[in-house]
Structure prediction request, 311 residues.
Amino acid sequence: MRSLNLDQLRALTEIVRLGSFSAAARKLNLSQPAVSLQLRELEARAGVRLVERLGKRAYATPAGQALIVHAERLAAEAEGALATMRRHREGGLGRVRIGTGFAMLNYLLPPILKRLRAAHPDLELGIFLGSSAAMIERVLKNEIDFGLVTLPAADPHLAVTALRHDRMMAVLPSGAKAPQRLRPADFARWPLILDAPGSRMGRFVRDWLAAGEGAPRPAMEIGDIHAIKLLVAAGVGASILPSEALALEAAKGEIVLRPLAPPVEIATGLIQRRDKPDDPALAIVRTALLELGKRPDPRGDRRNRTGPARR
Prediction:
């Protein structure tokens, strides 16, 4: 098969996404015959049919669906190449995209971002929020450059650097009478408020509870750590959260913290594609993000540590 044409691949993608040759033509600022010609040439190169009409709508064939997956990756790589050229042409550092979760963004990243802004005012940072699974997927698709995720992140296409290990803590209302260490059954005395079940942190906590006897079922499931802390401080219930997110409220006496028995830790890592071309902007941001592994957690847990990239 001859070399693929990016314009033809984009035409295929837009035809299927919009379901119409005419809509794709408007999107691409082309005539409908021009879009049709691009698709015919692409099908001739591929040697298979890529689009079929059902009624008034255009759909991808199985071969077309498979090719669109590659087309989206090629388009992202092409955009990355053009962005690199723009940075060289304009003499600026350009844009670096970081994906992370709510807790990391709120409790650990701000000092890093502040220092980056002060040292490199021409560096543009894009911050994207989501679950660890979503951030891993976006790194693999080259939609973001770095991900700060809850480990493990086991994919052969990823370079993974373990940054820190944070203990999960029992979070209780102020004045709560509780053992020095809480086992799963100890949470039966309060309504249990947990993070959303789809998050990795939520799964770690649920696995810990399931391993013990007499653990209660969650009374509430809320995908917002700050909201959970407010509910616990108001005496609504108890929760289990990472130590990094609890220092301020604990210092004010709004909540009571207790270790878990057996202990539970979550590991945070920095991920990027192994084949990601390096440039000065990426190197600067990577170095800054690695500092997260050297900073003690808010409770002074000295067990936080950095780890080498898994190669």
Remarks:
- Residues 135 and 237 are 31 Å apart (CA to CA).
- The longest helix spans residues 62-90.
- The longest strand covers residues 158-173.
- Confidence is low (pLDDT under 50) at residues 296-311.
